[in-house]
User: What shape does this take?
Amino acid sequence: MENNVKPRAGFGTAIGVLAATLGSAIGLGNIWKFPSLTGTNGGAAFVLVYILATLLIGLPVMISEHALGRKAKADAITTFRKLAPGSAWWLVGVAGVLAAFLIMAFYTEVAGWVFAYIVKAIGGGILSTDPEVTSAAFANLITDPTQSLIWQWVVLVWVAGIILFGVSKGIERMTKRLLPLLFLLLVVVGIRSITLPGGGEGLTFLFKPDFSQLTWQSVLIAMGLAFFKLSVGMGTMITYGSYFREDQNIPATAARVMLADVAVSLLAGIAIFPAVFAYGFEPTAGPSLLFITIPAVFSSMPGGSIFMVLFFILAAIAATGAMLSLFEVPVAFLNERCKMSRKTATLVTFALLALVGSTAALSNSSMANFKLLGKTMFDLFDYATSNVLLPVGGLFICLFVGWRWGYPQVKAELTNGGKLNNERIVRAFFGIAKIVTPVLVLVVLLNGLGLF
Assistant: This one.
């Protein structure tokens, strides 16, 4: 370990703060999880519930994390040690760092599939209108241990390389360049999708609510999705908040991120569902929608091979922004708490993720029969983070802000010491974060544990 740690870095510009935070929130959850869950839970009615859950759960937790991070100017664990010294609140930070690490362990494997599909799409390896052919192509990828590991390592090298450049020159610079490209590609693919004959049925599915299709379980799934998609409860927003400028308007920034995140999700839906309906495929394909149904859909349309390549490039871009924030959480901890240089912290995190992540990468091949608690390592990491660590983190973050930190501290931080005229917004946020959000998060947690 090196003892001479450089002064703490931060984001250089207000637009850089927004780009990096938005890059963290936007990920495969928008391109993969949101469309698949919308397809299996009734379409537009599910979308409305998700947006409401985002307002009452995701947004308050995000604002809370940003405020805590900027106040402490530290990693997720040290933040609570600074703000609540001598207490056990630092364990909330531990849960966040652990969640970020375990999510990266399986998320890099899914991202590896996306990167592999860019190459397959360019080479025509998944160009088929037959879902059985695209299913076989996907099965060949995930059951091949060599391919699984290589593509996961490609993703890790890509993300670690950006992280090595630092907060401003690495994360901020890359997200400022990638996000406009992401929006552009989504619009291009979306326009092509809605101009297909019969595509209007997909837009109806996405935007015309049919509440008879909505179940109580769908409501709970929408509430849980609000956590996963906005990257809250996992230490990322505390870490990014610690890099915020002192004049950053936290409530406004978080609201813009939430709105942009919802917009990207809807654009992804516009890119996918009209094409799915136009060619007679089922929107209820679930998680396989991205890797099995989408290639078959794009193969069915004129010029589909080009749009398929563009689609998987935009999915890779979305995954990159999210992985940068996840990777940064343990790097910041090792850099600041363990006094490692940023380079050493990045390399240690890379090595640990390559080791632990390999168990997730091999869950469909060499380690398919190795299970803990009845789950493969991939499924165990997914379950432990989505169902336990994220809601636990979000619950205690809100409890800390509402009941331990208190309104005077919250007001001072969110009004920038009285410089912003937004006290009504702060009061509304505080009331929701103190009472409403913890109750809803507790419901998500109990449901995830199978107790509700």
Notes: The domain at 14-448 is CATH 1.10.4160.10 (Hydantoin permease). The chain has one domain: 14-448. Residues 167 and 440 are 33 Å apart (CA to CA).
